[in-house]
Amino acid sequence: MLVVGGGGREHALAWKLAQSPQAARVYVAPGNGGTATEPGVENLPIAATDVDRLAAFAAEAGIDLTVAGPEAPLVAGIVDTFTAAGLRCFGPTRDAARLEGSKAFAKDFMLRHGIPTAQYQSFSDLDAALAYLQEVGAPVVVKADGLAAGKGVILADDLATAEAAVRDMLAGGRFGAAGATVVIEEWLRGQEVSYIALVDGEHILPLASSQDHKARDDGGRGPNTGGMGAFSPSPLVTPALEQRILDEVMRPTVTGLAADGLRYVGFLYAGLMISEDGTPKVLEYNCRLGDPETQPLLMRLDSDLLELIDAALDGRLQSVSAHWRQDTALGVVLAAGGYPGPYDKGITLSGPLDRATADIKVFHAGTALSDGEILSNGGRVLCATALGADLRAAHERAYATLAEIEMPEGFYRRDIGLVRPP
């Protein structure tokens, strides 16, 4: 098998896939310091977006299954390239991945198919965007249309912040081509939930519920990040709410894509805001597993992930089921000082960096193995993940592990799983 990517999600995917009785070898491209030492796993020095080299390796090495972890290779069309070469690759096609690759596309899709979401307008003209801001006022949310590594969403409490964000993207080129179009939408209030499922083009197999924490600082404050921690299951997702999510969001999304000529196969992630009256509204779609939600989710998964992916690729998800440990799982991200802004790399880490017990696992993200040492190599460095009988027990185990890990200038939130965002 081949896992494409080098983050915490890909470490978790490789770790879980390697547990399958069918797994002879799992390659990760490019991988990280954790996958470099994971049993049964081997790193490849190929970038996640170098689709042609990845396909050539898969053909030469006789790879039976490739799983694309991050969004960039999916948006670049890795599934199209692999399929054309007769290679088995799990994920949506380039056109279907526009659901994540373009926020304007996703918003127009939701409007067209009656999927609940925030009111919005899209702009590529600065003056028109500024005029709209004057019309709707603040607070609002300003989003870069394209991929921005989880940093292209600005929550603007006032017009000055909103106007600065729009100018940065449309005139200042803050996110390059990803910010050449902006989406301005209403600021939804409520509780965020991550809802993720496998999709085979027609059938949906829900995964366990989860919640992540996007804000950098304790109490849900500070700038947005790619995610500072997550836990599963979410106490917000009752059976009644899950039924609403399936009926009002997931099924209309899959059938809507099919109606538009886009057969969706892969992981489908709906980032949802649950309002006080229980209405789920889509904040964003992701065309892959979330990060850091994947880490606690796969800690709880008590089924063979390879079998579930094979069923999705073969169009027979209706014939399989996913089983879950009753425990709660919680993961806390250790980040580099300065993240999500500029940060240093090459910082030496020490402590239980390879801890792996029945209840605790340290998943690496932005790390690299160099001369036997683990060095930081990204903004989100690792995710200490633990299982417990309840949320507090999982919280205590994860934080106890993290307390033993040393990284100069590294930081992490202290309240993952224990507070709701404001």
Can you give a write-up of this model?
It is a single chain. The chain has 422 residues and is of the alpha+beta class. The chain has helices at 8-17, 51-61, 71-75, 78-84, 98-101, 103-113, 126-136, 159-170, 239-259, 294-300, 305-313, 391-403; strands at residues 2-5, 26-30, 41-43, 66-68, 89-90, 120-123, 140-144, 153-156, 182-186, 191-200, 204-206, 211-212, 215-217, 221-224, 229-232, 265-274, 280-286, 328-335, 360-364, 367-370, 373-376, 380-388. The strands form six sheets. Strands 3-2-1-4-5 form a five-stranded parallel beta sheet, sandwiched between helices. Strands 12-15-18-22-19 form a five-stranded antiparallel beta sheet. α7 (126-136) runs antiparallel to α8 (159-170). The model has no long low-confidence stretch (mean pLDDT 95).
Mean pLDDT, all residues: 95
Low-confidence stretches: none
Q: In angstroms, what is the radius of gyration?
A: 20 Å
| Major beta sheet, strand line-up | 3-2-1-4-5
* SS class: alpha+beta
Secondary structure: helix percent: 25-40%
Characterize the overall form.
globular
Oligomer: single chain
What is the count of helical runs? Answer: 12
Largest sheet: 5 strands, parallel
- N-end to C-end Cα span: 42 Å
Question: What percent strand?
Answer: 25-35%
Number of strands: 22
